[in-house]
Amino acid sequence: MTSSDETEFDAAAAEVLRPHVGTWIDEAGGGAGRRVAIAAARFNGGITLRLLAGALAGLDEAGVAAADVTVAWAPGAFELPLVARTLATSPARVDAVIALGAVIRGETGHYDFVAGECARGLQTVQLETGVPVVFGVLTTEDVAQALDRSRTDASNKGREAALTAVEMAAVVRRIRR
Questions:
Q1: Residue 27 scores a pLDDT above 80
Q2: Are 76 and 63 in contact (CB under 8 A)?
Q3: Averaged over 131-154, what is the pLDDT?
Q4: How far is residue 57's CA from residue 128's CA, in Å, rounded to a whole number?
Q5: Is 20 a catalytic residue?
Q6: Pick from 158, 94, 162, 79: which is nearest to 126 by CA?
Q7: What does DSSP assign to residue 91?
Q8: The domain that contains 73 carries what CATH number?
């Protein structure tokens, strides 16, 4: 499933609504000064490396300094929530965590448990810590779909996750002010 023109966010249409609210929080600002951590899964690591390259490119594009990026490796997607929680609560304080990996459907029900528990765990981390945790874990039917979503272009889901992390860090910071 892909987005169509009818489902895309239309900034001009949103601006028409802006005068009808008291406070409008839309922080798509830059990433300068933001500290971002990436929890990356080694399982299906060839895909994860492609997502990581996209995420690092996206963070660079957003203005996040390389020195402000931490990457921590987990054995697989199932372990990502614990790594993400540890990063989110570390004394080094991060503004956002990006979880990267790939869960590819196989011939057993293993996929359903790993993908679902990974997503649930990452959601729990962000809700309990207040630190945005972005779900950059591919859940695909086959390797071809995972390769397609981790291409070395603007469609790379790791890049999208990085840009989402920077935006969410800005939105959360603004709301807290």
A1: no
A2: no
A3: 97
A4: 29
A5: no
A6: 94
A7: T
A8: 3.40.50.960
Q: 155 is in which domain, residue-wise?
A: 61-91+99-177
Helix (H, G, I), strand (E, B) or coil at 108: coil
pLDDT above 80 (res 5):
no
Report how many helices (DSSP H) and strands (DSSP E) the chain contains, helices first.
6, 4
pLDDT band at residue 1 using 50, 70 and 90 as cut-offs: very low
SS3 57: helix
CB of 89 closer than 8 Å to CB of 31: no
Work out how many domains the chain is built from and give that number: 1
Residue 145 located in a structural domain:
yes
Catalytic pick among 93, 110, 151, 174 = 110
Strands 36-41 and 96-104: parallel
Domain assignment present for residue 26? The answer is no
The two tokens of residue 88 are: 């989110």
Q: Kindly state whether residue 114 falls inside one of the protein's structural domains.
A: yes
Distance CA 95, CA 68 (A): 10
What are the distances in angstroms from CA 17 to CA 12, 26, 164?
9, 13, 23
Give the pTM: 0.92
Residue 77 lies in a domain: yes
Q: Tell which phi-psi region holds residue 4, choosing left (phi > 0), alpha (psi between -120 and 50) or beta.
A: beta
